[in-house]
């Protein structure tokens, strides 16, 4: 799977440093420019724009960036101004780095191309059809969202609460039992032996991890 390219537009590199310390360099390429004018001069196709909104509010910057790049835009706000309508996602200061990382992943998933690849697995998020070595499976809506995130983070453990929030769009952590139900259904649907899963692994006390099968 090709790495995502994140274009950070911010006056300083503090955001870049935080992201480089939290994101896998093999999955995310981070490019920084100090202002919108320099971003518009670039000849590249970023997967996501991250704009640290200026004190003026940044409405024009958002319009120009959205017109120039076919990519979702995540705006970081200081809370003093209204958020431009064209922003695809918003994060208000102050925030934890983990919150930013989670919003990046959710925004990429929401605006992702229809097909996600991980090893021998190919998932069409529009039709919710999963193909594993030529075998097709029709997934349920929530199952598709859960698996898409696991495929994006292939080989890494995704925390239970993060999976739940991304799929259900809520912070009610006491409801994460519903996540286990959907994981169980996914295993019954795609695992050769659901009682001894080899694809969706449990990292007890933490979350779940996807280990795709080799290409046959």
Topology (elements, then pairings):
Elements: E1 4-9, H1 14-22, E2 28-33, H2 36-40, E3 48-52, H3 59-68, E4 73-77, E5 89-92, H4 97-110, E6 115-118, E7 121-124, E8 129-132, E9 135-138, H5 141-152, E10 157-159, H6 160-168, H7 177-190, E11 200-203, E12 207-210
Parallel strand pairs: 1-2, 1-3, 3-4, 4-5
Antiparallel strand pairs: 6-7, 7-8, 8-9, 10-12, 11-12
Could you walk me through the main structural features you see in this protein, from its secondary elements to its overall organization?
With 216 residues, the protein is an alpha/beta fold. The protein folds into 2 domains: 4-110, Response regulator (Rossmann fold, 3-Layer(aba) Sandwich), CATH 3.40.50; 115-210, Arc Repressor Mutant, subunit A. Helix content is 34%, strand content 25%. It is built from 7 helices and 12 strands. The chain has helices at residues 14-22, 36-40, 59-68, 97-110, 141-152, 160-168, 177-190, and strands spanning 4-9, 28-33, 48-52, 73-77, 89-92, 115-118, 121-124, 129-132, 135-138, 157-159, 200-203, 207-210. Strands 2-1-3-4-5 form a 5-stranded parallel beta sheet, sandwiched between helices. Strands 6-7-8-9 form a 4-stranded antiparallel beta sheet, with helices on one face. Helix 5 (141-152) crosses helix 7. It is elongated and about 55 Å long. The two termini are 18 Å apart.
């Amino acid at each position: 799977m090709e790495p995502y390219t994140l274009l950070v537009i911010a006056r300083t590199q503090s955001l870049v440093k935080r992201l480089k310390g939290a994101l896998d360099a093999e999955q995310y390429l981070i490019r920084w420019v100090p202002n919108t004018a320099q971003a518009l001069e670039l000849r590249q196709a970023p997967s996501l724009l991250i704009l640290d909104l200026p004190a003026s509010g940044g409405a024009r910057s958002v319009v120009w960036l959205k017109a120039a790049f076919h990519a979702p835009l995540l705006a970081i706000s200081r809370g003093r101004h209204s958020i431009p309508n064209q922003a695809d996602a918003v994060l208000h200061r102050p925030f934890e780095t983990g919150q930013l990382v989670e919003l990046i992943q959710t925004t990429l998933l929401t605006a992702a191309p229809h097909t996600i690849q991980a090893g021998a697995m190919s998932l069409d998020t529009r039709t919710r059809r999963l193909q594993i070595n030529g075998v097709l499976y029709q997934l349920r809506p929530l199952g598709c969202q859960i698996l898409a995130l696991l495929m994006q983070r292939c080989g890494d453990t995704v925390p239970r609460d993060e999976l739940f929030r991304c799929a259900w769009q809520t912070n009610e952590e006491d409801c994460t039992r519903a996540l286990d139900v959907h994981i169980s259904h996914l295993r019954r649907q795609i695992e050769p032996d659901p009682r001894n899963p080899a694809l969706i692994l449990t990292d007890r006390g933490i979350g779940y991890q996807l280990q795709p099968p080799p290409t046959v």
